[in-house]
Amino acid sequence: MTTSPKPDPSPRAAGGLVVAVDGPSSSGKSTVGAEAARRLRYRFCDTGLLYRAVAWLALERGIAPADVPALLPLAAEVVLVADARGRLRHVEADGRDVTHEVRGADVDRAVSDYSKVPELRAALVPRQRDLAGEGGIIMAGRDIGTVILPDADVKIYLSASAEERARRRAVQRGTVDETEADRILDELRRRDSIDSSRETAPLRIASDAVVIRTDGNSFEQTVGAVVQAIRAAEGAARVR
Prior knowledge:
- The protein has helices at residues 11-14, 29-40, 48-61, 68-71, 105-115, 118-132, 144-148, 162-173, 178-197, 219-239, and strands at 18-22, 43-46, 79-82, 87-93, 96-97, 137-141, 154-159, 210-213.
- With 240 residues, the chain is α/β, with parallel strands linked by helices.
- It has a single domain (11-226), classed as Rossmann fold (3-Layer(aba) Sandwich), CATH 3.40.50.300.
- Strands 1, 2, 3, 4, 5, 6, 7 and 8 form an eight-stranded mixed β-sheet that branches.
- Helix 2 packs across helix 10 (219-239) and helix 8 packs across helix 9.
- The longest helix is centred in the last third of the chain and has 21 residues, at 219-239.
- Residues 1-13 have low confidence and may be disordered.
């Protein structure tokens, strides 16, 4: 079962650029990308939700990453749901909204093991490319500019230290316990290692990407830098 994003009511989105935003876990891709899309009246897609949804569904059904024949059909069961602006920020699986569940700690620990399965990544590539086909979209992930949309009009890589990303994740979860905070940091480092070393679509910076390091940045500063990069590309496209 698949679905198409609802049409964005914005006239800008229909003729807008295709923007790839990549970066490691908890680098701010989703929140920054969504806010930049709102300001630019672009659609937004967090592709990580697809992998999180499959991982959540697999955990629910007791399917291991190595059980590829049982894992692959799950890719067709997860659905990204668009809001009124065309932002694909919600996910349905197993017939219900599981947006909250797919962001849980269990999925955090397991998602890299599922997302590194080559067959699963291959199954999700065409769905992601179809979403970008209309233009006027910011698509966030880990291999958007290098694999999914290598011809994207704009490629942005959000970078942040593991310590900064762990701090953000702890704040997001409301964690104050130091032991739990240390575990979050260990999980992020483990995930970075898996994402960067996997054979299929490893996390890396596209050669033509704009790199924005977010350590010490406020949310507003990072969003502003992303919007500025996209507007500069829009301006360059108009004069060509």
